[in-house]
Design brief:
single chain, mainly alpha, two-stranded antiparallel ribbon, 11 helices
C-alpha cells in the first residue's frame, strides 16, 4: 500500500504529494457542492412533497366514505334532470320545472361532482402539485357550504326526536315542496361529506403548509388590515344580532310567509348563521391584532366563519333574484340586506385571513 505522507529526502521536500492532497480535497469539496446543488434543484423543480400524501388506513377509509356520500345527491339530481319526479309530491312547484330550476339542478349537480375531484386532490400524488389557489378555493367553498349544515342538521334531528320540531303551518298555506325523506337523505350525505373532507384536508394542509399555522401569531398586521378587520367585526356583529333576534322568535323584517313558518327548526338555522358571523368577526380581529396565542385556532376560526358567512350570504342572495323554488314569496328587503351583510362579513374576514397567510409566507 502506497503511503500518502510526505517522505523527507535530505535537501528536498516531496511537494507533489502535498499538491495531490490539496487537489484531492478540492475535488471532494467541489463534488459535495455539486451534489447539494443538484439535490436543491431537484427539490425546487419537483415540489416539497413530490411523492404525495402518505395515506394510512384511516385516510383511505375517509376517502371512500366521502366519495360514497356524494352518491345520493348525484343520483337525485341526475334523476330530476332526466325528467324523474322521485321524491317530489303532487302539487309541488317542482313538478313544473322551468329554466331556472333546471339550471339550478345542473349547477348543484356540478358542485357535488366537484367534491369528488377535491377528495382525489387531497389523497393523490398529483394533488400536491396543484397551485395552492386551485385547491384552497374549492376547499374554502366546501367549508362554507357544509359548516352550517354540519352544525344545524344534527341539532334539528335532536329537536325532532324530542318532539318539539316544526310547528305545522295552517292547512293549505304552504304548497308541498319535497318528501321529507329527501331532506334526510341529502343532508345526511352532506354531513358525512363535511366530516370526511375535514378529516382529509387537515392532514393535507399540515403536510403542505404546516409551518404557516404552527407556533404563535407574533406581531400584528399593518394598520390598513386592522381597519378591514374592524369593519368585518362591526358588520358581523350587526348580522349576528339580527339572526339572534330571529332565532329567539322575533319576526320583524322576515316577511309574512317566513314569519308564519317560524319554528324551533328554523330558529336553529338562524342561530348557526349568527355563530358563523361572530366567528368570522372574532377571527379577523385576532389575526389582525397578533399576540402570543397559538396561531392555529384563530386561523381555524377565521377560515370557518368567513367561509360560512360568505357562502351562505352569496348563495341565497343569488337564489333570491330568481324564481322561488318552493313556490313561496320572495325574501323581504331586510332578509336580502342580511344576506348581503353576511357576504360582506365573509369577504372582509377572508381578506384578513389572506393577508395573514401572506405575511407568514414572507416571514
Amino acid at each position: 500500500m502506497t503511503s500518502t505522507r510526505a517522505v523527507h529526502v535530505p535537501g528536498k521536500t516531496n511537494l507533489p504529494s502535498k499538491t495531490n492532497e490539496k487537489s484531492e480535497t478540492s475535488r471532494t469539496n467541489e463534488t459535495s457542492r455539486t451534489n447539494e446543488t443538484s439535490r436543491a434543484s431537484r427539490s425546487k423543480g419537483s415540489g416539497t412533497r413530490p411523492s404525495g400524501p402518505a395515506l394510512g388506513a384511516g385516510r383511505r377509509t375517509l376517502r371512500a366514505v366521502a366519495l360514497a356520500a356524494t352518491v345520493p345527491y348525484l343520483v337525485l339530481k341526475s334523476a330530476w334532470l332526466s325528467g324523474s319526479r322521485v321524491g317530489i309530491p303532487e302539487g309541488s312547484p317542482l313538478q313544473e320545472p322551468g329554466m331556472f330550476l333546471t339550471l339550478a339542478n345542473a349547477v348543484t349537480l356540478a358542485m357535488d361532482a366537484c367534491v369528488i375531484l377535491l377528495v382525489l386532490a387531497l389523497t393523490r400524488p398529483w394533488g400536491m402539485r396543484l397551485p395552492p389557489w386551485l385547491l384552497t378555493v374549492p376547499a374554502f367553498v366546501a367549508t362554507g357550504l357544509l359548516t352550517p349544515i354540519l352544525t344545524a342538521f344534527p341539532a334539528q334531528l335532536l329537536i325532532r326526536a324530542a318532539g318539539s320540531g316544526a310547528r305545522a303551518p295552517a292547512e293549505g298555506a304552504v304548497r308541498p315542496f319535497l318528501d321529507s325523506w329527501v331532506f334526510t337523505v341529502v343532508y345526511t350525505g352532506f354531513t358525512v361529506q363535511g366530516l370526511a373532507l375535514a378529516g382529509l384536508f387537515v392532514p393535507y394542509a399540515r403536510e403542505r403548509w404546516g409551518r404557516r399555522w404552527q407556533g404563535v401569531q407574533g406581531r400584528g398586521l399593518p394598520s390598513p388590515t386592522g381597519v378591514v378587520a374592524g369593519a368585518a367585526a362591526v358588520c358581523g356583529v350587526l348580522v349576528a344580532g339580527v339572526h339572534v333576534y330571529w332565532a329567539l322568535g322575533g319576526a320583524g323584517g322576515m316577511g309574512a310567509e317566513r314569519a308564519a313558518a317560524r319554528s324551533a327548526m328554523t330558529g336553529v338555522v338562524s342561530g348557526v348563521h349568527a355563530m358563523c358571523a361572530l366567528a368570522a368577526a372574532a377571527g379577523a380581529l385576532l389575526l389582525a391584532r397578533g399576540g402570543s396565542r397559538r396561531v392555529w385556532w384563530p386561523l381555524a376560526l377565521t377560515w370557518t366563519g368567513s367561509a360560512a358567512a360568505l357562502c351562505w350570504g352569496l348563495w341565497p342572495l343569488i337564489a333570491s333574484l330568481g324564481t322561488q323554488l318552493d313556490g313561496g314569496e320572495h325574501p323581504s328587503g331586510t332578509v336580502r340586506l342580511i344576506y348581503a351583510g353576511q357576504m360582506i362579513t365573509g369577504v372582509l374576514a377572508a381578506a384578513v385571513l389572506a393577508r395573514f397567510l401572506t405575511s407568514r409566507r414572507e416571514a
